[in-house]
Amino acid sequence: MSPAQALARCYAHIKRELLFGEFGPGRRLEATRIADQLGVSITPVRDVLNRLVGEDLVIAKSGDGFHVPWLTQDELHDLYLWNGFVSDLAVRAPSQRSAPSPPSSDSYAARAASFFAGLSVGSRPIEWAMRRNNEWLSRARAVEPDVMDGIDEELNELLAMLEQNDQRNLIAVLRRYHRRRERAADLVIRAMRRRYREEDPAPL
């Protein structure tokens, strides 16, 4: 495996585990252990972890290595607020929106990420912002079904409006969608802490 291939493989694996897999909030990420699991040297793993520090998905603690950060209630509230603002821009942008690509799984979190990615297609700055939002919100969305009712129906309504290009109603429902989550930020944070503290805390 070439150095470039090893780097790409490490990046894809670690990013996937951060967003949807075993590397949940609060975890310490041991580069040596990850390298052993992937069958690569420690160099590409460290390079990837440093890159992910730059993407704000990992934090580096002096003398204590790399960790997956926890969101605070205020940070999650602001992320929901920011995602609503970017969504509003996406709907109003003159660019052509597209139907969402098939989600990576049938989970609510994957379907929501696919919807917002499709909403932002056509404007590269909006796509970039939405991609980061999807990453930052992935773990929160994973627990939203634990604290909010009717979210699958809510998402289906948004998907139908996007498909019909019903801009006025889409804006109104998106605002309601995000306001609901801003109000529930404390419940979502508590659900995240319950879920990820109950998992095996061993470093990865």
From TrEMBL:
GO terms for molecular function: DNA binding; DNA-binding transcription factor activity. The keyword Transmembrane does not apply. It comes from the Bacteria. The keyword Transcription applies. Signal peptide: none annotated. Keywords: DNA-binding, Transcription, Transcription regulation. Residues 4-71 form the HTH gntR-type domain. This is GntR family transcriptional regulator. It comes from Sphingomonas crocodyli. The lineage of its organism: Bacteria, Pseudomonadati, Pseudomonadota, Alphaproteobacteria, Sphingomonadales.
